[in-house]
């Protein structure tokens, strides 16, 4: 770590004493954010508030992708009836979601905010008069236009959310996405359920389709704050599990997108290819979504010789079916016609909304935590981050194809390294043995299959967690879907929605 | 070229499970637990459980609360063993509580099945799924029930979009306050008679979310549940076998 007068610079998953985080007055804080965020290689990975005694503490974490570090700084405010701050969103659009969350949770009003709307109608929100069935949708007064409302319950077996389209005939002028239906009070439960195992299981349940991604962020964070050493072998196994999750979800998404394209063959081939991958995860840990693999300090499920051999065979078999099908899909003109230039967003738009992961990489932004803020063995393996520039449905599909190929390569490379190590990965630490650093802060970034997952924790004098913050990549990327729909036919919504496949519960917490 | 597509299909081969009542799941899969009569420190055992699923004197595991982490079995391997028996769905909540010495399969209680279920739904059962704060793992597994692998459609069981066309609802997730009204509206829209299925530990008891201030489970106080499908998430084979037993399609 390194300290300047305005911020402290730390690495991903580095624990620091809270006292080292500079506290600025809001005027300087504002200026610092606006100045730093001018650089395209800097983006905000978290800005949130928590209450300690009668004070609200606001922590801001800006990730520098070139210097490979995270700049942390803060400001404070006494909790009172009327709390006001000048909105940063007017100058740095990506801050909208953070400021809206702070308003919702603590009642802080951001003056001049262009889009001060509820985020998820959290059960412990400051203003209980705001009700989920009374969301302030954007409206245009016109006799020519009409609105289409969909949800919260959708046609398929998927999570709930509400989509409100403002249409001129078939053309969508504006799509507004209202979420919050999935809110389970996760961050509050992280404090209430205080055993390590309960918290680990909560992390696996933030988004069931990203059980490995979120639990990796959690265990990495706990190990950093608790100074728990894990060996090389376990580091590799965690990455293998994470990359397997990426392969399974990406190939499943390609299957779903082909339902949207009405290309039945590809939808059933890709859909079918997901099955052996998640069944493999089940052979490894008993659960098709990888619940149970990640535990602090070790694992209950050693990655045995038999598992390694099975995985290598599985990848070869997978590739033999995947390659011809994806080659066929991406050369089939009738399929390409439904993907190319559909739901296009620009690099500038994605930069402005702070898009992460695939939503950034499909539109020309090479943002990938595995490269910019690597942890564990990611530091040692060569990661090829694929970046496409098209920003359309095609780019979102093709990126998945490229990433599947790359993930298979990483896994094969890791396995050949893994074979050289004879040391077993070790058991998880016993409950009650984890002692976290007191009065500390730690942030943990992991590149899940959707993108950057961010967990952050703050401890008190006794080393107890007093605030736990979770951020799923979807928090930013939902806005990308809304932008994709502009000037598109409303019938193109399903293919666009599937092409992003964002998390409702990851957003709603 | 068409020939290319035929080759792709050919390489993929047959995917469906010929008999969904028969497949064996791999060792680490956690299905119905068996609890031995060995004497252990029950307080320690019960305190391990992250979901409060373990009862004492006699030791029991409530599969409606169990999040399948297996921590109890790792710590007390000779006391608790999870078998790979995935047929753990039932219509009686108490049958999900496995006690010391219980080694019988979990089954549907024939006496408790409403008459109209078998007469009306034996050949065709259309369901409306409601994700009420489900984590998307439950939803993914329910989707998988209809994929080429498990192919529940062969039994006439399907998920449909409109509740008006359905014979019942399947709820996943612990039921958030924010979804409570939508759950009621959707349930009301299904014509009578209708069945109610809870799929997954979160739906049955709240699972790891039990006790959260963000939930509102009052809907469940008002209606009779026709099938409980445990699991975190429920395995497609658990779901399909449970329904088949309920509507009596499973080969005996």
Structure, described:
The complex is a heterodimer of chains A (509) and B (252). Chain A contains 16 helices and 14 strands. Chain A is an alpha+beta fold and 509 residues long. In chain A, the strands form four sheets. Chain A has a five-stranded antiparallel β-sheet with strand order 1-2-6-5-4, with helices on one face. In chain A, helix 6 runs antiparallel to helix 13 (393-418) and helix 8 runs antiparallel to helix 13 (393-418). The longest helix of chain A has 30 residues, at 232-261. The mean pLDDT of chain A is 93. Chain B is an alpha/beta fold and 252 residues long. Chain B has helices at residues 2-12, 42-48, 71-75, 115-121, 137-145, 177-189, 201-205, 219-222, 236-247, and strands at residues 33-35, 54-55, 60-62, 80-82, 97-99, 125-131, 157-159, 168-172, 195-199, 227-229. In chain B, helix 5 (137-145) packs across helix 9 (236-247). The model of chain B has no long low-confidence stretch (mean pLDDT 93). At the A-B interface, helix 3, helix 4, helix 7, helix 8 and helix 16 of A face helix 1, strand 6, helix 5 and helix 6 of B.
Would you count the extended β strands of chain A for me? Answer: 14
Taken as a percent bin, the fraction of beta residues of chain A is: 15-25%
Shape of chain B: globular
Overall residue-averaged pLDDT value of chain B: 93
For the biggest β-sheet of chain A, the strand order reads: 1-2-6-5-4
Taken as a percent bin, the fraction of beta residues of chain B is 5-15%
Radius of gyration of chain A: 22 Å
| Class of secondary structure makeup of chain B | alpha/beta
Q: Write out the strand line-up for the largest beta sheet of chain B, numbering strands in chain order.
A: 7-6-8-9-10
In quaternary terms, these chains amount to heterodimer
Succession of helices and strands of chain B: HEHEEHEEHEHEEHEHHEH
Shape of chain A: globular
């Amino acid at each position: 770590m390194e300290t300047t007068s305005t911020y402290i610079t730390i690495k991903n998953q580095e624990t620091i004493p809270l006292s080292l985080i500079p506290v600025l007055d809001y005027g300087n804080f504002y200026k610092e954010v606006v100045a730093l965020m001018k650089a395209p290689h800097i983006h905000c990975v978290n800005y949130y508030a928590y209450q300690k005694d009668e004070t609200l503490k606001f922590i801001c974490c800006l990730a520098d992708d070139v210097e490979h570090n995270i700049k942390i700084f803060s400001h404070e405010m006494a909790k009172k009836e009327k709390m006001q701050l000048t909105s940063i969103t007017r100058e740095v659009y990506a801050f909208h979601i953070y400021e809206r969350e702070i308003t919702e949770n603590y009642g802080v009003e951001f003056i001049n905010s262009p889009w001060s709307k509820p985020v998820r109608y959290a059960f412990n929100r400051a203003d209980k008069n705001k009700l989920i069935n009374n969301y302030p949708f954007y409206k245009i007064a016109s006799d020519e236009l009409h609105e289409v409302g969909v949800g919260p319950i959708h046609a398929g077996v998927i999570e709930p959310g509400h989509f409100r389209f403002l249409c001129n005939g078939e053309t969508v002028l504006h799509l507004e996405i209202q979420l919050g239906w999935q809110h389970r009070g996760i961050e509050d439960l992280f404090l209430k359920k205080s055993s390590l195992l309960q918290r680990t299981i909560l992390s696996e349940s933030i988004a069931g389709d990203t059980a490995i991604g979120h639990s990796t962020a959690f265990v990495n964070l706990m190990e950093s704050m608790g100074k728990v050493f894990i060996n090389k072998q376990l580091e590799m196994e965690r990455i293998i599990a994470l990359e397997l999750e990426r392969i399974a979800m990406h190939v499943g998404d390609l299957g779903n997108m082909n339902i949207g394209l009405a290309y039945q063959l590809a939808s059933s081939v890709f859909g079918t290819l997901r099955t052996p991958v998640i069944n493999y995860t089940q052979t490894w840990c008993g659960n098709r979504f990888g619940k149970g693999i990640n535990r602090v300090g070790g694992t209950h499920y050693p990655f045995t010789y038999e598992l390694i051999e099975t995985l290598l065979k599985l990848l070869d078999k997978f590739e033999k079916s995947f390659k011809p099908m994806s080659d066929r899909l991406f050369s089939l003109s009738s399929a390409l016609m439904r993907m190319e230039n559909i739901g296009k967003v620009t690099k500038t738009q994605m930069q402005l909304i702070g898009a992460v992961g695939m939503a950034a990489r499909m539109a020309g932004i090479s943002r990938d935590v595995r490269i910019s803020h690597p942890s564990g063995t990611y530091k040692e393996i060569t990661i090829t981050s694929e970046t496409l520039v098209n920003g359309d449905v095609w780019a979102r599909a093709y990126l998945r194809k490229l990433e599947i190929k790359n993930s298979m390569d990483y896994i094969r490379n890791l396995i050949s390294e893994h074979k050289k190590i004879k040391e077993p990965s070790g058991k998880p630490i016993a409950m009650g043995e984890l002692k976290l650093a007191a009065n500390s802060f730690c942030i943990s970034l992991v590149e899940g299959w959707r993108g950057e997952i961010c967990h952050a924790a703050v401890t008190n004098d006794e080393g107890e967690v007093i605030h736990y913050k979770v951020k799923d990549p979807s928090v930013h990327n939902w806005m990308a879907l809304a932008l994709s729909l502009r000037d598109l036919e409303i019938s193109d919504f399903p293919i666009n929605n599937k092409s992003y496949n964002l998390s409702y519960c990851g957003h709603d917490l | 070229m068409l020939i290319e597509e035929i080759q792709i299909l050919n390489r993929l081969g047959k995917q469906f499970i010929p008999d969904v009542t028969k497949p064996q799941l791999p060792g680490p899969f956690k299905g119905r637990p068996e609890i031995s009569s060995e004497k252990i420190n029950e307080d320690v055992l019960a305190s391990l459980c992250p979901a409060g699923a373990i009862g004492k004197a006699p030791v029991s595991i409530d599969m409606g609360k169990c999040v399948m982490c297996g921590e109890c079995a790792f710590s007390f391997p000779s006391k608790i063993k999870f078998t790979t028996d995935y047929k753990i769905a039932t219509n009686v909540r108490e049958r999900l509580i496995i006690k010391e010495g219980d080694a019988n399969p979990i089954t549907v209680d024939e006496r408790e099945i409403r008459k109209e279920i078998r007469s009306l739904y034996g050949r065709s059962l259309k369901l409306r799924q409601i994700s009420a704060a489900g984590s998307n793992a439950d939803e993914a597994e329910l989707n998988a029930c209809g994929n080429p692998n498990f192919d529940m459609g062969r039994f006439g069981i399907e998920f449909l979009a409109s509740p008006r066309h359905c014979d019942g609802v399947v709820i996943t997730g612990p039921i958030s306050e924010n979804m409570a009204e939508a759950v009621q509206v959707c349930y009301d829209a299904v014509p009578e008679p209708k069945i109610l299925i809870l799929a997954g530990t979160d739906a049955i008891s709240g699972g790891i979310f039990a006790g959260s201030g963000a939930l509102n489970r009052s809907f469940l106080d008002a209606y009779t549940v026709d099938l409980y499908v445990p699991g975190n998430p429920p395995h497609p084979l658990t779901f399909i076998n449970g329904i088949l037993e309920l509507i009596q399609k499973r080969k005996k």
